[in-house]
Amino acid sequence: MTLAFGFSRFLNPRVNPSTNPILGLWLFSCSCSCSSSASSAPEPPELAGGPGTIREGRAEIFADKSNSVFYNKAQVNNRDLSIAVLRSFLLKRQEEHDIRLVKGRHAETPPEQHANDLDPVVTGSEDTAPREESKIKAPKVLEALAASGLRAIRYALEVDGIGEVVAVDNNEEAIEACKKNIYHNAIPASSKVVPNLADARVYMLTHPKEFDVVDLDPYGSPAAFLDSAVQCVADGGILMCSATDMAVLAGGNPEVCFSKYGSYPVRGKYCHEMALRILLACIESHAIRHKRYIVPVISVHMDFYIRVFVRIFTSASTVKTSPLKISHVYQCVGCNSFHLQNVGRINSKDKRNVALPNFCPTVPQECCECGHKFVMGGPIWSDPIHDKEWATSILSNVQAMSGAYPAYAKISAVLTSVSQELVNAPLFVSLHSLCATLKCTNPTMAMFHSALRNAGYQISGSHVDPLALKTDAPMSVIWDIMRCWVKLHPVKSRPGADPSNRILSQEPKLQASFSQATGGLVARKSPRFVPNPEKYWGPKAKAGRPLKTPHMDNCEFRFTANTLEAGDRTSISK
Ligand SMILES: C[S@@+](CC[C@H](N)C(=O)[O-])C[C@H]1O[C@@H](n2cnc3c(N)ncnc32)[C@H](O)[C@@H]1O
Ligand SMILES: [Zn+2]
Questions:
Q1: What is the pTM of this model?
Q2: C-beta neighbour count of 128 within 10 angstroms
Q3: Ligand 1 atom 8, closest CA
Q4: Which residue has the higher pLDDT, 107 or 96?
Q5: DSSP category for residue 53
């Protein structure tokens, strides 16, 4: 059925390669690096939505019930968010280019800033000096682990101004499927998406700094691809990287996490944010080997995986400050208090901003709150994981184009949470966990927020957990607030070494006020968390393995919360 359908499209005169030079070229040389146009994507041809096809956004691919090529519809969230980031990245690059034009070509620009610029389109003749055009060169994208090509095709069809999209996979069946899917989507996907059968690591290593965007969406861990990926991204370009090995990253197998990412996870309520920070630290550690460094745009935990979007720049001097962005985490085994300590420190006498190794641990042998020991996790990325301003602008662009995103409800909720997060407060405490330690009743979230604000600290939620409390207050202040709460709502004393005994035996140094603080929690207009749209919304078996869940059997999904007609935009036609 699939083949017959594909073949009939082949015969369609509208897309016949013999009458279409671009398609003809593609057929003979699909892995060449043909030049691409920067023009905005024209409307795709009307796709038939025929039997055996899957439609997502503006793309349509052939369904493969045998699972010989990987496709997981739950990743629509991942693909939609990536498109949103990509759209805003193009705007950002244009903005940066415009600023540079205004400043003038010969203005003094620090080396880092030069590194951030996309190659401008330069025009000129013998008698005229080269002139930068007002439009940047269409950014080139590498989808290094492409499978069916759905993501690459969506990028080509849906992101205005995008350049060539190279879709690499080392599986022959995947590349064959990719070719059929590219062809099925006809112009402009066929003129922009270039399939390539290759090992992604080799391809990336042999194309240094060539792609403005590199997308890594592996089975499980991206660790094996990071060293080549950080070398493949152009200066100022963006690396978009998923990891689905959450059991490893969130503390289920600490030794495996250390071997893959060079970091120990700690099992805590914040484990998903820690997973993001472990991945960021790992990417940074690869980047600095090549005199490059990362700047996170947004970093999210969604569904069953994490995905980070980081820009990559080159600067030997900034690389020297990398230890200031990386920290160890000490977590108390009794009360779950945590403390961060930078791996490096700045020697104040040294004006060069070079980081030296930090002094010995900032925590005592025993926790001041409960007397238990600490475990040491990390190192993790302890600088901001989002560019808040950028996250807010991605959110408003998404809201302005809600109809363009099949997973609008999910990605707008995640972006809403992300844009409200405190960026200078790595990790978080959970209100439930604090109360569970003391065996006391819960204050409301609004009361706890007010108590911290009234004490002069900042507080926010986190997109990874609806019960998270992110704050710049030290643990001692958090426990003092809980001590004050327990004075108002007494608990029975516990026997022996229970952490609550030691915590509650200390008088609070701070008198907490739970009365409503200005700027406290307000009723939220937009949801920050939405339920999964359907059953089996999770990871999927690798290609070639039998499916245990009926991923391909339910023909359509609908988001249940705050959706428009989202379900109509992603569907599988049987
Ligand atoms: C999770 S799938 C990618 C899904 C795809 N990005 C999407 O959005 O639908 C991972 C793909 O990576 C490919 N792959 C695994 N190792 C590879 C390697 N070393 N080089 C190139 N491709 C590889 C697999 O064949 C598989 O198709
Ligand atoms: Zn403790």
A1: 0.84
A2: 8
A3: 151
A4: 96
A5: E
pLDDT tens readout for residues 471-521:
999 999 999 999 999 999 999 887 778 999 999 999 999 999 999 887 655
SS3 46: coil
Coil, strand or helix at 7: helix
What is the ipTM for the molecules in this complex? 0.99
> Could you tell me if 301 and 273 are in contact, meaning their C-beta atoms sit under 8 angstroms apart?
yes
Q: What is the mean pLDDT of residues 527-533?
A: 78
DSSP for 128-182, written as a single string: EEEEEEEEEPPPPEEESS-TTSHHHHHHHHHSTT---EEEEES-HHHHHHHHHHH
Residue 107: DSSP 8-state: S
The pair of structure tokens assigned to 561 is 């919360």
* Protein residue closest via CA to atom 16 of ligand 1: 170
The span from the CA of 198 to the CA of 413, in Å, is 37
Residue identifier of the C-alpha nearest atom 11 of ligand 1: 145
Mutate to test the pocket of ligand 1, among 70, 81, 155 (most ligand atoms within 8 A of CB): 70
Residue minimizing CA distance to atom 19 of ligand 1: 199
Beta strands in 438-541 (DSSP E): 459-462, 465-471
The Cα–Cα gap between 417 and 464 comes to 9
Is pLDDT at 126 greater than 80 in this prediction? no
In Å, how far are 285, 342, 382, 429, 474 from 426, measured between CA atoms?
Answer: 19, 12, 6, 10, 12
Under DSSP, is residue 115 helix (H, G, I), strand (E, B) or coil?
helix
Domain boundaries, the chain: 199-385
Q: Please tell me the distance from the alpha carbon of residue 181 to that of residue 6, in angstroms, as a whole number.
A: 9
Ligand 1 binding pocket, CB closer than 6 Å: 70-71, 75, 79, 145-148, 150-151, 168-171, 174, 199-201, 217-219, 543
Looking at ligand 1, which residue's alpha carbon is closest to its atom 27?
A: 147
Q: What pLDDT, on the 0 to 100 scale, is given for residue 426?
A: 98
Considering Cα of 61, then 67, then 68, then 69, what sign does the dihedral take?
positive
User: What CA–CA distance (Å, rounded) separates 313 from 317?
Assistant: 11
363 contacts 373 by C-beta, under 8 angstroms: no
What is the per-residue pLDDT across 385-404, written as a single tens digit (0 to 9) for each? 999 999 999 999 999 999 99
DSSP state, residue 72? -
**Residue whose entry in the numeric block shows the structure tokens 């108590």:** 451
Ligand 1 atom closest to the Cα of residue 215 is: 6
List the shell of residues around ion ligand 2, using CB closer than 5 Å: 332, 334-335, 337, 367, 369-370, 372
Bridging pattern class, strands 193-197 and 165-169:
parallel
| Ligand having the closest approach to the CA of 500 | 2
- Among 5-9, 184-188, 380-384, the range scoring the smallest mean pLDDT is 5-9
**What pLDDT, on a 0 to 100 scale, did the predictor assign at position 74?**
80
The one-letter amino acid code at 126 reads E
- The residue assigned the tokens 């040491």 is 376
Mean of the per-residue pLDDT values of the chain? 83
Omega of the bond leading into 499 within 30 degrees of 0 (cis): no
Q: Of 167, 110, 119, nearest to 141 (Cα)?
A: 167
| Structure tokens that stand for 363 in this block | 């925590």
For the record, the structure tokens of 111 come out as 């080396």
Instruction: Classify 199-385 by CATH class.
Output: alpha beta
Closest ligand by atom to 543 CA: 1
Give the angle subtended at the CA of 113 by the CAs of 345 and 85, to the nearest 5°.
90
